[in-house]
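Students often ask what a holo structure prediction actually looks like on paper. The answer is less mysterious than it sounds. You provide the chain, you provide the ligand, and the output is a string of C-alpha coordinates encoding the 3D arrangement of the protein together with glutamine.
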Amino acid sequence: MDEKFLGKMADKSSEEHYSPFPEGYKIGKTKYVIITGSVISGIGKGIFSSALGKTLQDRGLKVAPIKVEAYLNADSGTLSPYRHGEVFVLDDGTETDMDLGSYERFLNMKLTKDNFTTHGQIYQKLIEKERTGDYHGRDVQYIPHVTGEAKYVLRNLAVKSKADIVLVEIGGTVGDFENLFAMESARQMIYEEGSENVCLVNLTYIVEPNHLGEFKSKAAQLGLRELMRLGLQPDLIVCRSQHPVTETIKEKISLNANVPIEKVFNTYDVGNIYELPLSFREQGIDEAIMKVLGWNDKYKANGSKSLKEWTDKNIVKKKGEITIGIAGKYTGTSDTYISIVKALEHCSTKLKANVNVKWIETTEIEKGKTTAEAELKDVDGLIIPGGFGTRGIEGKIACAKYVREKDIPFLGICYGFQMAVVEFARNVCGIKGASTEEVKKDDNTNVICILPEQEEVKDLGGTLRLGGFDIKLKKDTKAWELYGKKDSARERFRHRFNVNTKFIDKLEKCGLIFSGMAPEKRIMQILELKDHPFFIGIQYHAEFTSRPLNPNPVYLGLVKAAIKNKK
Ligand code: GLN
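The corresponding C-alpha coordinates follow.
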Protein backbone atom coordinates (compact mmCIF):
# COMPACT_ATOMS: atom_id res chain seq x y z
CA MET A 1 0.00 0.00 0.00
CA ASP A 2 1.13 3.56 -0.69
CA GLU A 3 1.95 5.60 2.40
CA LYS A 4 0.54 8.73 0.77
CA PHE A 5 -2.80 7.02 0.65
CA LEU A 6 -2.49 5.81 4.22
CA GLY A 7 -1.23 9.15 5.46
CA LYS A 8 -4.14 10.95 3.85
CA MET A 9 -6.60 8.67 5.51
CA ALA A 10 -4.87 9.34 8.78
CA ASP A 11 -5.70 13.01 8.49
CA LYS A 12 -9.35 12.21 8.58
CA SER A 13 -9.95 10.33 11.75
CA SER A 14 -13.43 9.44 10.57
CA GLU A 15 -11.91 7.03 8.03
CA GLU A 16 -12.01 3.31 8.62
CA HIS A 17 -8.30 3.08 7.85
CA TYR A 18 -7.20 5.30 10.72
CA SER A 19 -3.43 4.84 10.60
CA PRO A 20 -1.58 7.85 11.91
CA PHE A 21 1.89 8.07 10.38
CA PRO A 22 4.89 9.64 12.03
CA GLU A 23 6.42 12.46 10.05
CA GLY A 24 8.86 11.36 7.42
CA TYR A 25 7.64 7.78 7.40
CA LYS A 26 8.29 5.86 4.21
CA ILE A 27 7.00 2.37 3.63
CA GLY A 28 9.75 -0.11 2.89
CA LYS A 29 12.54 2.05 4.31
CA THR A 30 12.49 0.05 7.52
CA LYS A 31 11.38 -3.56 7.48
CA TYR A 32 9.89 -5.51 10.37
CA VAL A 33 10.49 -8.88 11.94
CA ILE A 34 7.57 -9.72 14.21
CA ILE A 35 8.00 -12.48 16.76
CA THR A 36 5.07 -14.22 18.41
CA GLY A 37 4.99 -17.26 20.66
CA SER A 38 2.62 -20.20 20.78
CA VAL A 39 1.67 -23.07 23.12
CA ILE A 40 3.09 -21.71 26.36
CA SER A 41 4.52 -18.52 27.71
CA GLY A 42 7.99 -18.53 29.19
CA ILE A 43 9.70 -20.20 26.23
CA GLY A 44 12.32 -17.50 26.07
CA LYS A 45 10.99 -15.18 23.37
CA GLY A 46 13.14 -12.41 24.80
CA ILE A 47 16.36 -14.38 24.53
CA PHE A 48 15.30 -15.70 21.14
CA SER A 49 14.61 -12.20 19.82
CA SER A 50 17.88 -10.89 21.22
CA ALA A 51 19.96 -13.71 19.72
CA LEU A 52 18.16 -13.32 16.41
CA GLY A 53 18.83 -9.58 16.52
CA LYS A 54 22.50 -10.38 17.01
CA THR A 55 22.61 -12.42 13.80
CA LEU A 56 21.00 -9.54 11.93
CA GLN A 57 23.41 -7.01 13.40
CA ASP A 58 26.24 -9.28 12.33
CA ARG A 59 25.08 -8.77 8.74
CA GLY A 60 25.59 -5.07 9.13
CA LEU A 61 21.90 -4.30 9.63
CA LYS A 62 20.83 -1.62 12.04
CA VAL A 63 18.34 -3.28 14.37
CA ALA A 64 15.86 -1.59 16.70
CA PRO A 65 14.10 -3.99 19.08
CA ILE A 66 10.74 -3.34 20.74
CA LYS A 67 8.73 -5.30 23.27
CA VAL A 68 4.97 -4.96 23.14
CA GLU A 69 3.55 -5.95 26.52
CA ALA A 70 -0.03 -7.13 26.63
CA TYR A 71 -0.80 -5.98 30.15
CA LEU A 72 -2.63 -2.82 31.11
CA ASN A 73 0.03 -1.37 33.37
CA ALA A 74 1.52 1.77 31.85
CA ASP A 75 5.00 0.30 32.39
CA SER A 76 6.67 -2.45 34.44
CA GLY A 77 7.45 -0.19 37.39
CA THR A 78 4.69 -1.33 39.71
CA LEU A 79 4.99 -5.03 38.91
CA SER A 80 6.25 -7.42 41.53
CA PRO A 81 9.55 -8.90 40.41
CA TYR A 82 8.40 -12.08 42.07
CA ARG A 83 5.60 -12.50 39.54
CA HIS A 84 7.14 -10.95 36.48
CA GLY A 85 10.92 -10.97 36.88
CA GLU A 86 13.10 -7.95 37.44
CA VAL A 87 12.15 -4.41 36.50
CA PHE A 88 14.82 -3.27 34.06
CA VAL A 89 15.53 0.47 34.09
CA LEU A 90 16.65 2.25 30.94
CA ASP A 91 18.98 5.23 30.94
CA ASP A 92 16.07 7.57 30.19
CA GLY A 93 14.29 6.29 33.30
CA THR A 94 11.76 4.00 31.63
CA GLU A 95 10.89 1.03 33.85
CA THR A 96 10.64 -1.96 31.59
CA ASP A 97 10.45 -5.69 31.38
CA MET A 98 13.57 -7.80 31.80
CA ASP A 99 13.57 -8.64 28.07
CA LEU A 100 14.88 -5.14 27.43
CA GLY A 101 17.88 -6.16 29.50
CA SER A 102 18.45 -9.09 27.15
CA TYR A 103 18.21 -6.79 24.12
CA GLU A 104 20.66 -4.28 25.59
CA ARG A 105 23.14 -6.99 26.51
CA PHE A 106 22.99 -9.06 23.33
CA LEU A 107 22.82 -6.12 20.97
CA ASN A 108 25.09 -3.86 23.02
CA MET A 109 22.63 -0.98 22.73
CA LYS A 110 21.30 1.75 24.96
CA LEU A 111 17.52 1.65 24.52
CA THR A 112 14.85 4.24 25.25
CA LYS A 113 11.13 4.47 25.95
CA ASP A 114 10.55 4.04 22.21
CA ASN A 115 11.76 0.44 22.49
CA PHE A 116 9.01 -0.55 24.87
CA THR A 117 5.26 -0.27 25.01
CA THR A 118 2.33 -1.76 26.88
CA HIS A 119 -1.33 -1.97 26.01
CA GLY A 120 -1.97 0.23 29.04
CA GLN A 121 0.21 2.90 27.48
CA ILE A 122 -1.64 2.66 24.19
CA TYR A 123 -5.04 2.95 25.88
CA GLN A 124 -3.83 5.86 27.96
CA LYS A 125 -2.82 7.73 24.81
CA LEU A 126 -6.15 6.99 23.18
CA ILE A 127 -8.19 8.19 26.10
CA GLU A 128 -6.11 11.35 26.34
CA LYS A 129 -6.77 11.98 22.65
CA GLU A 130 -10.47 11.30 23.08
CA ARG A 131 -10.68 13.77 25.97
CA THR A 132 -9.06 16.48 23.91
CA GLY A 133 -11.52 15.91 21.09
CA ASP A 134 -9.04 14.48 18.65
CA TYR A 135 -11.56 12.05 17.19
CA HIS A 136 -13.99 14.75 16.03
CA GLY A 137 -17.16 13.13 17.29
CA ARG A 138 -16.28 9.69 16.08
CA ASP A 139 -16.75 6.62 18.32
CA VAL A 140 -13.33 5.30 19.33
CA GLN A 141 -12.95 1.66 18.39
CA TYR A 142 -10.50 -1.19 18.67
CA ILE A 143 -10.26 -1.17 14.92
CA PRO A 144 -9.13 1.23 13.58
CA HIS A 145 -8.10 3.36 16.57
CA VAL A 146 -6.43 1.03 19.05
CA THR A 147 -4.69 -0.87 16.28
CA GLY A 148 -3.82 2.46 14.63
CA GLU A 149 -2.01 3.62 17.76
CA ALA A 150 -0.26 0.28 18.14
CA LYS A 151 1.06 0.47 14.59
CA TYR A 152 2.09 4.06 15.18
CA VAL A 153 4.37 2.96 18.01
CA LEU A 154 6.22 0.58 15.67
CA ARG A 155 6.50 3.10 12.88
CA ASN A 156 7.59 5.80 15.27
CA LEU A 157 10.48 3.59 16.34
CA ALA A 158 11.33 2.97 12.69
CA VAL A 159 11.57 6.71 12.00
CA LYS A 160 13.37 7.67 15.19
CA SER A 161 15.91 4.86 15.13
CA LYS A 162 16.48 5.01 11.35
CA ALA A 163 16.85 1.24 11.66
CA ASP A 164 16.89 -1.20 8.79
CA ILE A 165 14.86 -3.62 10.85
CA VAL A 166 12.46 -3.12 13.72
CA LEU A 167 12.39 -6.33 15.70
CA VAL A 168 9.00 -6.61 17.37
CA GLU A 169 8.43 -9.05 20.21
CA ILE A 170 4.76 -9.48 21.04
CA GLY A 171 4.36 -10.47 24.67
CA GLY A 172 2.23 -13.44 25.70
CA THR A 173 1.11 -16.42 23.68
CA VAL A 174 -1.10 -16.88 20.63
CA GLY A 175 -4.62 -17.41 21.92
CA ASP A 176 -4.27 -15.02 24.86
CA PHE A 177 -7.21 -12.70 25.13
CA GLU A 178 -4.84 -9.95 26.22
CA ASN A 179 -2.69 -9.73 23.12
CA LEU A 180 -5.46 -10.09 20.54
CA PHE A 181 -5.22 -6.53 19.34
CA ALA A 182 -1.42 -6.68 19.11
CA MET A 183 -1.92 -9.68 16.83
CA GLU A 184 -4.51 -7.78 14.82
CA SER A 185 -2.12 -4.83 14.54
CA ALA A 186 0.54 -7.22 13.22
CA ARG A 187 -1.92 -8.47 10.61
CA GLN A 188 -2.65 -4.93 9.51
CA MET A 189 1.06 -4.07 9.43
CA ILE A 190 1.69 -6.94 7.01
CA TYR A 191 -1.19 -5.78 4.83
CA GLU A 192 -0.20 -2.13 4.83
CA GLU A 193 3.56 -2.46 4.67
CA GLY A 194 3.47 -5.32 2.18
CA SER A 195 4.49 -8.90 2.85
CA GLU A 196 8.01 -8.25 1.50
CA ASN A 197 8.52 -5.73 4.29
CA VAL A 198 7.41 -7.82 7.25
CA CYS A 199 8.60 -11.24 8.31
CA LEU A 200 6.41 -13.06 10.80
CA VAL A 201 8.19 -15.58 12.99
CA ASN A 202 6.42 -17.90 15.39
CA LEU A 203 8.30 -19.53 18.21
CA THR A 204 6.32 -22.60 19.16
CA TYR A 205 6.84 -25.20 21.84
CA ILE A 206 7.11 -28.90 21.12
CA VAL A 207 6.20 -30.91 24.19
CA GLU A 208 8.01 -34.08 25.15
CA PRO A 209 6.04 -35.63 28.01
CA ASN A 210 8.16 -37.69 30.35
CA HIS A 211 5.80 -40.63 30.42
CA LEU A 212 5.89 -40.93 26.62
CA GLY A 213 9.53 -40.15 25.99
CA GLU A 214 8.72 -38.78 22.53
CA PHE A 215 7.80 -35.44 20.95
CA LYS A 216 4.17 -34.48 20.51
CA SER A 217 3.38 -31.67 18.09
CA LYS A 218 -0.38 -31.31 18.51
CA ALA A 219 -0.22 -28.41 20.94
CA ALA A 220 2.09 -26.57 18.52
CA GLN A 221 -0.22 -27.35 15.61
CA LEU A 222 -3.17 -25.93 17.51
CA GLY A 223 -1.22 -22.82 18.43
CA LEU A 224 -0.28 -22.28 14.81
CA ARG A 225 -3.86 -22.88 13.67
CA GLU A 226 -4.98 -20.22 16.10
CA LEU A 227 -2.39 -17.84 14.67
CA MET A 228 -3.68 -18.48 11.16
CA ARG A 229 -7.25 -18.08 12.35
CA LEU A 230 -6.26 -14.54 13.29
CA GLY A 231 -5.26 -13.98 9.69
CA LEU A 232 -1.57 -14.34 10.41
CA GLN A 233 0.42 -16.64 8.18
CA PRO A 234 3.87 -17.24 9.70
CA ASP A 235 6.81 -16.99 7.31
CA LEU A 236 9.11 -18.92 9.60
CA ILE A 237 8.51 -21.29 12.47
CA VAL A 238 11.05 -22.05 15.14
CA CYS A 239 10.30 -25.09 17.25
CA ARG A 240 11.48 -24.65 20.80
CA SER A 241 12.11 -27.91 22.61
CA GLN A 242 14.16 -29.53 25.27
CA HIS A 243 16.04 -31.81 22.86
CA PRO A 244 16.57 -31.54 19.09
CA VAL A 245 13.27 -32.34 17.33
CA THR A 246 12.97 -34.99 14.61
CA GLU A 247 12.34 -34.34 10.91
CA THR A 248 8.90 -35.93 11.30
CA ILE A 249 7.93 -33.27 13.79
CA LYS A 250 9.14 -30.53 11.45
CA GLU A 251 7.16 -32.13 8.61
CA LYS A 252 3.97 -32.13 10.66
CA ILE A 253 4.46 -28.51 11.61
CA SER A 254 5.24 -27.58 8.03
CA LEU A 255 2.13 -29.25 6.62
CA ASN A 256 -0.18 -27.87 9.25
CA ALA A 257 1.01 -24.30 9.03
CA ASN A 258 1.66 -23.83 5.29
CA VAL A 259 5.33 -23.23 5.94
CA PRO A 260 7.85 -25.03 3.72
CA ILE A 261 10.00 -27.40 5.74
CA GLU A 262 13.16 -25.44 4.99
CA LYS A 263 11.63 -22.61 6.95
CA VAL A 264 10.89 -24.73 10.00
CA PHE A 265 13.77 -24.50 12.46
CA ASN A 266 14.61 -25.78 15.87
CA THR A 267 16.11 -24.30 18.99
CA TYR A 268 16.57 -26.57 21.96
CA ASP A 269 18.01 -26.23 25.44
CA VAL A 270 21.65 -25.28 25.12
CA GLY A 271 24.15 -25.03 27.92
CA ASN A 272 24.80 -21.40 27.18
CA ILE A 273 22.62 -18.74 25.58
CA TYR A 274 25.67 -17.26 23.83
CA GLU A 275 25.62 -20.31 21.55
CA LEU A 276 22.29 -19.26 20.09
CA PRO A 277 23.25 -16.66 17.46
CA LEU A 278 25.77 -19.04 15.90
CA SER A 279 23.28 -21.90 15.97
CA PHE A 280 20.68 -19.69 14.25
CA ARG A 281 23.23 -18.72 11.60
CA GLU A 282 24.28 -22.32 10.99
CA GLN A 283 20.66 -23.40 10.61
CA GLY A 284 19.99 -20.56 8.20
CA ILE A 285 17.34 -18.74 10.25
CA ASP A 286 18.59 -15.23 9.49
CA GLU A 287 19.20 -16.21 5.88
CA ALA A 288 15.54 -17.27 5.59
CA ILE A 289 14.45 -13.93 7.04
CA MET A 290 16.58 -12.09 4.47
CA LYS A 291 14.83 -14.03 1.70
CA VAL A 292 11.37 -13.18 3.04
CA LEU A 293 12.36 -9.52 3.14
CA GLY A 294 13.70 -9.62 -0.41
CA TRP A 295 17.29 -8.97 0.65
CA ASN A 296 18.82 -11.80 -1.27
CA ASP A 297 22.04 -10.04 -2.17
CA LYS A 298 22.04 -7.21 0.30
CA TYR A 299 23.42 -7.55 3.83
CA LYS A 300 25.22 -10.78 3.15
CA ALA A 301 26.65 -12.66 6.10
CA ASN A 302 30.37 -13.33 6.03
CA GLY A 303 29.80 -16.97 6.89
CA SER A 304 29.91 -17.71 10.58
CA LYS A 305 33.32 -16.26 11.30
CA SER A 306 32.51 -13.16 13.33
CA LEU A 307 29.64 -14.80 15.20
CA LYS A 308 31.87 -17.72 16.02
CA GLU A 309 34.49 -15.36 17.41
CA TRP A 310 31.88 -13.66 19.56
CA THR A 311 30.62 -17.01 20.82
CA ASP A 312 34.11 -18.26 21.59
CA LYS A 313 34.91 -15.14 23.56
CA ASN A 314 31.74 -15.56 25.59
CA ILE A 315 32.21 -19.23 26.23
CA VAL A 316 35.68 -19.56 27.61
CA LYS A 317 37.12 -22.46 29.52
CA LYS A 318 37.11 -21.53 33.16
CA LYS A 319 39.31 -22.79 35.87
CA GLY A 320 38.64 -22.23 39.50
CA GLU A 321 35.38 -21.61 41.19
CA ILE A 322 33.96 -19.10 43.63
CA THR A 323 30.60 -18.66 45.30
CA ILE A 324 28.82 -15.35 45.62
CA GLY A 325 25.89 -15.18 48.03
CA ILE A 326 22.87 -13.08 47.04
CA ALA A 327 20.91 -12.21 50.16
CA GLY A 328 17.48 -10.98 49.16
CA LYS A 329 13.87 -11.80 49.63
CA TYR A 330 12.59 -12.93 46.28
CA THR A 331 14.96 -15.80 45.93
CA GLY A 332 12.34 -18.29 44.70
CA THR A 333 13.09 -17.30 41.11
CA SER A 334 16.38 -16.08 39.68
CA ASP A 335 14.49 -13.88 37.16
CA THR A 336 13.96 -11.47 40.04
CA TYR A 337 17.67 -10.65 39.95
CA ILE A 338 18.43 -11.61 36.36
CA SER A 339 20.68 -8.62 35.53
CA ILE A 340 22.76 -9.30 38.66
CA VAL A 341 23.19 -12.91 37.62
CA LYS A 342 24.15 -11.77 34.11
CA ALA A 343 26.63 -9.19 35.44
CA LEU A 344 28.30 -11.95 37.45
CA GLU A 345 28.35 -14.09 34.33
CA HIS A 346 30.14 -11.32 32.43
CA CYS A 347 32.80 -11.18 35.17
CA SER A 348 33.09 -14.93 35.19
CA THR A 349 33.92 -14.92 31.48
CA LYS A 350 36.35 -12.03 31.77
CA LEU A 351 38.20 -13.51 34.73
CA LYS A 352 37.86 -17.12 33.54
CA ALA A 353 36.46 -18.31 36.86
CA ASN A 354 33.21 -20.11 37.48
CA VAL A 355 30.93 -18.00 39.65
CA ASN A 356 28.29 -19.96 41.53
CA VAL A 357 25.40 -18.15 43.13
CA LYS A 358 24.11 -19.09 46.54
CA TRP A 359 20.64 -17.71 47.18
CA ILE A 360 20.08 -16.60 50.73
CA GLU A 361 16.53 -15.84 51.86
CA THR A 362 16.87 -13.01 54.37
CA THR A 363 13.38 -13.52 55.82
CA GLU A 364 14.59 -16.90 57.11
CA ILE A 365 17.45 -15.19 58.94
CA GLU A 366 15.06 -12.57 60.27
CA LYS A 367 12.72 -15.25 61.62
CA GLY A 368 15.62 -16.99 63.32
CA LYS A 369 15.32 -20.15 61.22
CA THR A 370 18.96 -19.77 60.25
CA THR A 371 21.77 -17.28 60.94
CA ALA A 372 23.92 -15.00 58.83
CA GLU A 373 26.95 -16.98 59.90
CA ALA A 374 25.46 -20.33 58.89
CA GLU A 375 24.52 -18.94 55.49
CA LEU A 376 27.70 -16.99 54.79
CA LYS A 377 30.53 -19.03 56.15
CA ASP A 378 31.07 -20.78 52.82
CA VAL A 379 30.67 -17.83 50.44
CA ASP A 380 33.59 -15.93 48.90
CA GLY A 381 31.63 -12.74 48.42
CA LEU A 382 28.19 -11.31 49.13
CA ILE A 383 25.69 -9.16 47.27
CA ILE A 384 22.72 -7.58 49.00
CA PRO A 385 20.48 -6.55 46.12
CA GLY A 386 17.82 -3.88 45.77
CA GLY A 387 14.47 -4.19 47.45
CA PHE A 388 11.52 -2.45 49.02
CA GLY A 389 9.58 -2.62 52.28
CA THR A 390 10.09 -4.12 55.69
CA ARG A 391 10.17 -7.87 55.22
CA GLY A 392 13.63 -9.41 55.42
CA ILE A 393 15.55 -6.24 56.24
CA GLU A 394 16.84 -7.39 59.64
CA GLY A 395 18.23 -10.44 57.83
CA LYS A 396 20.01 -8.15 55.36
CA ILE A 397 21.45 -6.05 58.17
CA ALA A 398 22.73 -9.20 59.91
CA CYS A 399 24.43 -10.28 56.67
CA ALA A 400 26.02 -6.86 56.15
CA LYS A 401 27.40 -6.99 59.70
CA TYR A 402 28.84 -10.46 59.24
CA VAL A 403 30.71 -9.67 56.01
CA ARG A 404 31.98 -6.34 57.33
CA GLU A 405 33.41 -7.98 60.42
CA LYS A 406 34.72 -11.07 58.67
CA ASP A 407 36.39 -9.23 55.77
CA ILE A 408 34.25 -10.95 53.15
CA PRO A 409 34.00 -8.98 49.86
CA PHE A 410 30.68 -7.20 49.75
CA LEU A 411 28.57 -5.27 47.27
CA GLY A 412 25.38 -3.59 48.48
CA ILE A 413 23.03 -2.48 45.75
CA CYS A 414 20.43 0.24 46.33
CA TYR A 415 18.51 -1.18 49.31
CA GLY A 416 21.65 -3.18 50.01
CA PHE A 417 23.63 0.09 50.11
CA GLN A 418 21.07 1.57 52.49
CA MET A 419 21.16 -1.51 54.73
CA ALA A 420 24.95 -1.26 54.91
CA VAL A 421 24.57 2.34 56.12
CA VAL A 422 22.01 1.28 58.72
CA GLU A 423 24.24 -1.54 59.94
CA PHE A 424 27.26 0.74 60.16
CA ALA A 425 25.26 3.38 62.02
CA ARG A 426 23.99 0.86 64.55
CA ASN A 427 27.13 -1.15 65.16
CA VAL A 428 29.99 1.25 64.51
CA CYS A 429 28.55 4.70 65.21
CA GLY A 430 26.42 3.41 68.08
CA ILE A 431 23.17 4.93 66.81
CA LYS A 432 20.73 2.65 68.56
CA GLY A 433 17.71 1.63 66.51
CA ALA A 434 19.15 3.23 63.34
CA SER A 435 16.89 2.47 60.39
CA THR A 436 15.24 3.80 57.25
CA GLU A 437 12.17 5.95 56.88
CA GLU A 438 10.81 3.27 54.55
CA VAL A 439 10.24 1.17 57.67
CA LYS A 440 9.45 3.57 60.48
CA LYS A 441 9.09 7.29 61.16
CA ASP A 442 11.76 8.58 63.51
CA ASP A 443 13.68 11.76 62.82
CA ASN A 444 16.40 11.01 65.35
CA THR A 445 17.61 7.63 64.20
CA ASN A 446 16.70 7.27 60.53
CA VAL A 447 20.03 7.38 58.75
CA ILE A 448 18.12 6.73 55.54
CA CYS A 449 15.29 9.11 54.75
CA ILE A 450 13.08 10.09 51.88
CA LEU A 451 14.67 12.15 49.09
CA PRO A 452 13.55 15.78 49.51
CA GLU A 453 12.13 15.83 45.96
CA GLN A 454 10.01 12.80 46.84
CA GLU A 455 8.29 14.20 49.92
CA GLU A 456 5.18 15.41 48.13
CA VAL A 457 4.92 12.50 45.70
CA LYS A 458 1.74 10.47 46.16
CA ASP A 459 1.56 8.23 43.09
CA LEU A 460 3.47 4.98 42.96
CA GLY A 461 4.01 4.55 39.20
CA GLY A 462 7.03 6.17 37.52
CA THR A 463 7.75 8.50 40.43
CA LEU A 464 10.98 7.18 41.92
CA ARG A 465 14.32 8.80 41.18
CA LEU A 466 14.77 6.93 37.94
CA GLY A 467 17.28 6.38 35.21
CA GLY A 468 20.82 7.45 34.42
CA PHE A 469 22.52 10.08 36.58
CA ASP A 470 26.12 11.18 36.90
CA ILE A 471 28.21 10.23 39.88
CA LYS A 472 31.03 12.46 41.04
CA LEU A 473 33.88 10.23 42.19
CA LYS A 474 36.19 11.09 45.04
CA LYS A 475 39.84 10.94 44.05
CA ASP A 476 42.06 8.22 45.48
CA THR A 477 39.20 6.02 46.61
CA LYS A 478 38.40 2.45 45.66
CA ALA A 479 35.41 3.58 43.57
CA TRP A 480 37.59 6.05 41.69
CA GLU A 481 40.04 3.25 40.96
CA LEU A 482 37.30 0.86 39.85
CA TYR A 483 36.00 3.40 37.35
CA GLY A 484 39.44 3.80 35.82
CA LYS A 485 40.47 6.84 37.91
CA LYS A 486 37.94 9.03 36.14
CA ASP A 487 36.24 12.01 37.80
CA SER A 488 32.77 10.73 37.12
CA ALA A 489 30.67 7.80 36.02
CA ARG A 490 27.10 7.37 34.86
CA GLU A 491 24.84 4.66 36.23
CA ARG A 492 21.12 3.88 36.53
CA PHE A 493 19.05 4.57 39.64
CA ARG A 494 15.67 3.52 40.99
CA HIS A 495 15.06 4.73 44.51
CA ARG A 496 12.93 6.93 46.74
CA PHE A 497 15.14 7.08 49.84
CA ASN A 498 18.73 8.12 50.43
CA VAL A 499 21.35 8.76 53.11
CA ASN A 500 20.01 11.33 55.56
CA THR A 501 22.25 14.39 55.23
CA LYS A 502 21.95 15.01 58.98
CA PHE A 503 24.04 11.90 59.61
CA ILE A 504 26.69 12.18 56.91
CA ASP A 505 29.29 13.85 59.15
CA LYS A 506 28.83 11.35 61.90
CA LEU A 507 29.01 8.36 59.55
CA GLU A 508 32.17 9.76 57.98
CA LYS A 509 33.78 10.43 61.34
CA CYS A 510 33.21 6.79 62.22
CA GLY A 511 35.10 5.72 59.07
CA LEU A 512 32.50 5.35 56.35
CA ILE A 513 33.75 6.86 53.10
CA PHE A 514 31.27 8.31 50.64
CA SER A 515 33.30 8.01 47.50
CA GLY A 516 30.60 8.82 44.97
CA MET A 517 27.86 11.43 45.11
CA ALA A 518 25.47 13.36 42.92
CA PRO A 519 27.23 16.33 41.30
CA GLU A 520 24.82 19.03 42.40
CA LYS A 521 22.83 17.53 45.21
CA ARG A 522 23.86 16.03 48.51
CA ILE A 523 22.85 12.52 47.51
CA MET A 524 25.38 9.89 48.53
CA GLN A 525 25.80 7.33 45.78
CA ILE A 526 28.78 5.14 46.66
CA LEU A 527 30.16 4.09 50.02
CA GLU A 528 33.24 2.14 50.94
CA LEU A 529 35.37 1.08 53.87
CA LYS A 530 39.09 1.55 54.07
CA ASP A 531 40.34 -1.39 56.04
CA HIS A 532 38.37 -4.06 54.30
CA PRO A 533 39.33 -6.13 51.23
CA PHE A 534 36.23 -4.97 49.34
CA PHE A 535 33.24 -3.30 50.96
CA ILE A 536 31.28 -1.20 48.48
CA GLY A 537 27.72 0.06 48.55
CA ILE A 538 26.08 1.68 45.55
CA GLN A 539 22.81 3.59 45.56
CA TYR A 540 22.36 2.59 41.90
CA HIS A 541 22.04 -0.62 39.91
CA ALA A 542 25.40 -1.23 38.27
CA GLU A 543 24.08 -4.51 36.83
CA PHE A 544 21.99 -2.64 34.25
CA THR A 545 25.06 -1.39 32.39
CA SER A 546 27.08 -4.59 32.48
CA ARG A 547 27.63 -6.20 29.09
CA PRO A 548 29.03 -9.48 27.80
CA LEU A 549 32.78 -9.02 27.29
CA ASN A 550 32.52 -5.68 29.09
CA PRO A 551 31.48 -6.28 32.69
CA ASN A 552 30.50 -3.39 34.93
CA PRO A 553 33.63 -2.31 36.86
CA VAL A 554 32.02 -2.53 40.29
CA TYR A 555 30.94 -6.13 39.72
CA LEU A 556 34.35 -6.92 38.30
CA GLY A 557 35.91 -5.50 41.45
CA LEU A 558 33.71 -7.68 43.64
CA VAL A 559 34.43 -10.88 41.73
CA LYS A 560 38.17 -10.18 41.65
CA ALA A 561 38.14 -9.63 45.40
CA ALA A 562 36.10 -12.80 45.90
CA ILE A 563 38.61 -14.81 43.87
CA LYS A 564 41.38 -13.43 46.05
CA ASN A 565 39.39 -14.18 49.17
CA LYS A 566 38.64 -17.78 48.20
CA LYS A 567 39.40 -20.02 51.07
N1 GLN B 1 13.57 0.88 48.74
C1 GLN B 1 14.71 1.67 48.52
C2 GLN B 1 14.35 3.04 47.98
O1 GLN B 1 13.29 3.23 47.44
C3 GLN B 1 15.69 1.00 47.60
C4 GLN B 1 15.18 0.83 46.22
C5 GLN B 1 15.89 -0.24 45.45
O2 GLN B 1 16.56 -1.08 46.01
N2 GLN B 1 15.69 -0.28 44.15
O3 GLN B 1 15.13 3.95 48.09
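Residues 386-388, 414-415, 438, 494-497 surround glutamine (CB under 6 Å).
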